[in-house]
Amino acid sequence: MAHRQAKPVLQEFALIRDLARRFVRRTPGLVQSIGDDAAVIQTSAGTWCHLTTDLLAEGIHFDMTWSSPESVGYRAAMANLSDIAAMGAVPRYLLISLAIPKKWTQPQIHKLYTGLMMACRRYDVALIGGDTSASKAGLFLSITLIGTTSQRQGLFRHGAAVGDHIYASGTLGDSLAGLRILTNRTTSDSVKKRTSELSRTHRQFLLRRHSHPTARVAEGLWLNDRRLASAAIDLSDGLSGDLRHLCEQSRVGAEIDLEKLPISSACRAYARAFGVSPIQLALTGGEDYELLFTAAPLHSKTIEQQARTRGYRMTRIGTIRPSRFGIQITSGGRTKPMPTTSYEHFR
Predict the structure, then answer these.
(1) Backbone torsion region of residue 232, taken as left when φ is above 0, otherwise alpha when ψ lies between -120 and 50, otherwise beta
(2) What is the pTM of this model?
């Protein structure tokens, strides 16, 4: 009796690499293709144009049972703004395409756009077009954001060198903790009791970090303009996965000191209340939209001094190692391989 062959399981990043290998071709004016936070093309005006696009699907990226239309729009814009921030570019223009289910009303769409434009107005981004369609499933948003830099001046995932220091902006794990608070609102009484043990200030901070994150546009521009970073990526899928992308593109390894991970007091309070590891939240949690970047040791003093002056939180969390070292985590004097625990579609 013949056995049916198991259907191959899709893997998000393997699929992207396969599509790039099969269908992407070099063309005049193309500076950076698939494999970074944004594609980059050379314009006739002598500038670089950075283009990024994101698809957000109801039930995958957001759930309307605990999300407002305004927060969905805000987070969608910030996801794209964060990609442009990681390139060290100035965000300029936005295009939005929507597939709208019948249950949505015009006032709800207005609130969605209010959230989108609330995020974009912070950076003087102009809405210039898009498309609309009906949807027989949930709501779908496709956003394209265009940014610019001076010619030959941008941040990329490649460029990290052995010995470079690894930095993270802000704090990590907050968005995941905030999401879990939202989803726990409809669960058991014991879970609700644990949530109530958090102070109101901590709850509001974590919920805000999830529903209204901040793209580090100013920080990216500073790192690029001063040529302080050797490579950069935004933390949208989680540190354990996004660091791996940067290392793959730079063909290096990395060593991360877990005791130096920047974790907020609110995230630590959440971890205590629910008996989970704050370090695991920091490694796993995506959608913090912080910047992960590398810098030559000679720039470390400048980065740390200027960051304090500008009010930016920048924490050195590790060091770039040779590729044969792999990606390792160190804690209490012990080193072991970093597991990949960040989000990946189809997994």
Answers:
(1) beta
(2) 0.87
Contact 229, 154 (CB under 8 A): no
| Nearest C-alpha neighbor of 114 from the set 141, 81, 77, 85 | 77
Comparing C-alpha atoms, which of 86, 153, 84, 179 is closest to residue 123?
A: 84
Domain ranges, ordered by start, for the chain: 16-150, 165-337
Average pLDDT over residues 109-125: 95
Instruction: For residue 236, give the nearest of 180, 175, 181, 279 by alpha carbon.
Output: 175
Find all residues with CB under 8 Å of 297, minimum gap 6, and list them.
163, 164, 165
Spatial separation of the C-alpha atoms in residues 6 and 10, rounded to whole Å:
12
**Burial category of 196 from C-beta neighbours within 10 Å (exposed 0-12, middle 13-18, buried 19 and up):** exposed
Q: Report DSSP state, residue 124.
A: T
pLDDT for 166-194, tens place per residue? 999 999 999 999 999 988 765 566 666 67
Domains 16-150 and 165-337 share a fold: no
Helices (H), the chain: 12-23, 69-86, 106-121, 174-184, 189-196, 200-211, 217-225, 239-250, 265-274, 278-284, 300-310
Q: Does domain 165-337 have CATH number 1.20.1250.20?
A: no
Helix axes 69-86 and 217-225, enclosed angle (nearest 10)? 10
Instruction: Give the per-residue pLDDT at 9.
Output: 66
* Torsion sign over Cα 211, 217, 218, 223: positive
Handedness of CA 323, 329, 330, 336 (dihedral sign): negative
Q: Which CATH architecture has domain 16-150?
A: 2-Layer Sandwich (3.30)
Only one residue has tokens 């590790």, namely 318
Lookup result for tokens 């969905």 = 72
Token readout for 70 is: 């305004």
Residue 168, strand partner residues: 292, 315
